[in-house]
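User: My instructor asked us to take a sequence, write out its structure as tokens, and then describe one feature of it. I'm not sure where to start. Here is the sequence I was given:
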Amino acid sequence: MTFIKSRKINIGGLSVGDYEEPKFISEIGVNHLGDIDRMKNMIKLSYEAGADFIKFQTYNAKTRYNLKTNKKAKEFIKLTSSWQLSLEENVEAWNYAQSLGAKVFTSIYDVGEIKFAMDMGTIAFKIAAFELVNLKLIKEVAETKIPVIASVGMASEKEIDKFVEILHKKDIPYILLHCISSYPLEKKFSYLENIHKLKSKYACPVGHSDHTLGTEIPSLAVAAGACIIEKHFTDNIKLRESDNFFSVTYDEVIEIKQKMKKVFSFLHNKNEKTEDYMRDFKKYTN
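Assistant: Let's start with the prediction itself. The structure tokens for your sequence are:
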């Protein structure tokens, strides 16, 4: 089955897709560790570094994981509970980001979080890799008509097909992010070839959610066809909790953006005059 749809969509006034400069998502997620001041500092640094989008996580720790099927659920409920911002702090974070002019969206994990994100003016919904099979959530998100960005780590082709079918029925614009669900990921297992495979089947914008250390992989992903890159962001890589230790910093976001722009120019800049001198050497025969 091949799904036909435009490879370019609009998110928050920015065009994302083929022949557009690649965009960067700064995922703050839970790297703030429940500290609203750190959260706001990371928002500020992400925005000033030039992140095109800033992504939050909106969740209720008690319902984020399935206790019946996930043996690690209790451990992660305890962790994410300690990192969970209050409702008032979440509102404060959204308002602060939007006051800077940042383009903000969020990952959600339960249908109960949709209304809050809508009320706060989310410009998209992010579906985490392990929620791609949460069809109840996907169907409710599709009812909002808001663009969807989904990581496809761990997903089978049938699971991606089912997810995409739901969005197509409601004519929802979407982006698929190639992703390897390992935190952190060794660079040698990045499997960037999958970007080509996703683009060959799903005629939508395709990006990459990168969990490797440093700044090397994003520009390679752009060369492989990614139009948007997501990386976890921190203001302190020395912190060992959550994803801080393999996240990127202010300076690294600037570096990634510069590298992506350079690769994009290598891919698309064409000047036919550069071959003018050699044209006389062409041999035309019948």
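For the description part of your assignment, you could build on this observation: The chain has one domain: 8-281. Try explaining in your own words what that tells you about the chain.
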